[in-house]
Amino acid sequence: MCVKLVKKNDNAVQCDGCDHWVHIRCADIDREGYKLLQLSKPEDKWYCSKCSSPCGICLKGVWGDDPAIECDSCKKWIHNRCSLVDDSHYDHIQATNCIWMCPNCDNGNLSNTWGLTAPQRENSFHALNPDSGNAHSIPSIDGKSSARRPSGKTALKKEVSIVSININGLRGKKLDLQTILSESNPDVVALQETKIDSTVTNTELIPPCLEYEIFRNDRTLRGGGTMLLIKNHLSPTQVNFIADGSESIWAKVSINGTWHYIASWYRDPDAHVEHISLLRDQLSKIMTSHRNSKLPCFHVLGDFNFSQIDWAHRLDKDSGNSVSNHSGKLLLDIINDFAADQLVKSPTRGNNTLDLVITNTPSQYTDVSTMDSPSDRAAIVCKLKCLFPNLKQPRRHITQYSKGDYATMRRDTRGFCIKYFNGGQDMRTVEENWQLIKSFLEKTVKANIPTKMTKSRKSLPWITDTIRRLVRRRNRLHAIFKKTGKADVRKRWVELRSKIKREVYTSHKNYINGMIGDIKVDAKPFWRYINGQKKDKHTIPPLKSNSKVAVSDMDKAQALNSQFSNVFSKTVFTTNPFFRSVCGKMPDITISTHGVEKLLHGLKPNKAMGPDNIHPWVLKEIATDFAPVLSHLFQQSLTNGRIPEDWKTAYVCPIYKKGDNTLPSNYRPVSLTCVCCKLLEHIIASNLMNHFEHNNLLATNQHAFRKLHSCETQLVSIIEDWASSLDNHKQIDAFILDFEKAFDTVPHELLKTKLHTWCV
């Protein structure tokens, strides 16, 4: 790799493909991986990057002895496990007359398999380590150890699980739906007849811990409504360009370079004859939008209410002839024209197949069946074969500030103050003093506050083991009833359904009551729960930026950063306007230790910390002992006109406002700055306002951001003026203005000029 000589004492490994020695630093192998390689068995092999090729799906190396296939079109090697090829299919693919479809580029090609002519050789792994006496027998560190070379496999899911339910009123069945989501954990859920409106939030219906992106099309009148729930790791995006008045909601996801359009559709039984033609228009728009690219896949899930069609034969159920109903014929024509198929053959309500799955990729579906649902009809369950990364939320360290040893921290802070005020505090720069303070705080927090690792919880806490067992038993009874149709089985199944409903309701009520506690003692948990139900938590979908779609987190961050930076005014004035000073010079700001201590005690411990990772809880607990150090730093910063570099940075959080959530322009930045920086800003702002108020520099009609002034005082003043004008028979003219992005677009040079005019 580096062409340098591999010496005897170097940490290196030998490739089983080309027999060359490679430094572990050149092979990107860390010390832990090197130890595992030393413990590998003789049959385990290692190959350098020149003897392996990255898999077109999982991007991991395809080694010389790995079962894999090369695509003639995209020239990518693909593991058998990544292309869903088992051993029997692999033997067939090795035949010269076999044509297979590449999952990376979707092109058909003649097969070629990796390593068919590779010579079989004995494992010749050696570690250039003087401690190893035998080249082929490396002593184990622990006799019981079974450590092996890491396989390097990426966690992949081989299928997308899909559920479609006519819920017939979601608000009253939300606990039943949550039980299904918690136990089955489907990737895509399509709901029809949700019967909700905009006053019902997503959080009220689906807990955020289930990790779904929610798309809704609520009916403005009574009844109806559709909804899509798609897992966040699929990065779904709502499709708005095909909105045409139908009762449907569309979203799209990209899997292995192919766009999959997913819809939840509802057709009212009394709908107009031509209503189903709206589906044709939607599919036409989808196909037209991909005219110059790879054709997309579509999956239409929903309740179409065509009871007269026998879907097993596509004939009229009553006569056995061709379908005579005009709407039914239109639907069959749509399915044929778009080379699609309808996959549900079994009844979903009584003897009628009302709920359908229409797709142009029927061969990729497996296990299309029905299961018990909270409504009066069965839910459709199916699986779509495809490969995508099974992304798991990484575990994080959580600092438990409520369990800190603050008595020890206060004692350490007093010792640090003595060290800080050693006579050299004024000789050090502002940055040096800040780094000294920051280093001490990080050290004492690490020593005195415990941490824990977060646990990913995708299940709902009120779904107990007892409920899970009952659900599994109910599903078994439902399956038996579908096969046998016995009345006694149906009776047991219905009774068990009712019992589960009662158990879930009771368990959920007990959980909420335990979380809220006694409202007479402490009402905060109650209002925290209520406010949490009223607010929706939005994840950021793929964003449209410069005619491209930003899908990865890095691309989204770049798109939002460009939007936020472009909004700020970049107006450059060659000559600033001149204004005569209107008052005396503002006195210098003097910072007292007592004032800083008061601010530290007033910090809210549950607020977020900034980029310096100094939590307000810690500052509040050590306020009395820490105030002298911080007040000196503040005064030094004002005197020298310098602030620490950490205070110039912030965590910028994009907050969705309204409109299309795929447009970066519909997000607003909220900056989380350092807590100490906020305290200094508060001190400066207070002194500025005192100067303005003392010299009567602010307009009397300005009610915002002033003491004893607010929107209420402004409304009282306006109503008084209007009432007086009406009493005196005078005309009233009112102009109401709202400036877009007002705080971001104000030229800072003009603000600085105005402050200079006001002798700041």
Overall description:
The protein has 760 residues and is an alpha+beta fold. Among the domains are: 156-389, Endonuclease/exonuclease/phosphatase (Deoxyribonuclease I, Chain A, 4-Layer Sandwich), CATH 3.60.10.10; 465-533, no CATH class; 553-697 and 730-757, no CATH class. A six-stranded mixed sheet has the order 11-12-10-9-22-21. The longest helix is centred in the middle third of the chain and has 30 residues, at 487-516. It starts with 11 loop residues before the first strand and ends with a helix. Mean pLDDT is 81; it is low at 110-154. Residues 1-54, 52-108 form the PHD-type domain. InterPro entries: AP_endonuclease_F1_BS (IPR020847), DNA/RNA_pol_sf (IPR043502), Endo/exonu/phosph_ase_sf (IPR036691), Endo/exonuclease/phosphatase (IPR005135), RT_dom (IPR000477), Znf_FYVE_PHD (IPR011011), Znf_PHD (IPR001965), Znf_PHD-finger (IPR019787). One of its GO terms (molecular function) is DNA binding.
How do the strands line up in the largest sheet?
11-12-10-9-22-21
CATH class of the domain at 156-389: Alpha Beta
Rg result:
34 Å
CATH fold naming of the domain at 156-389? Deoxyribonuclease I, Chain A
How would a crystallographer describe the biggest sheet? 6 strands, mixed
Region (Disordered): 125-150
GO molecular function, one term: DNA binding
Organism: Holothuria leucospilota (Black long sea cucumber)
InterPro entries: AP_endonuclease_F1_BS, DNA/RNA_pol_sf, Endo/exonu/phosph_ase_sf, Endo/exonuclease/phosphatase, RT_dom, Znf_FYVE_PHD, Znf_PHD, Znf_PHD-finger
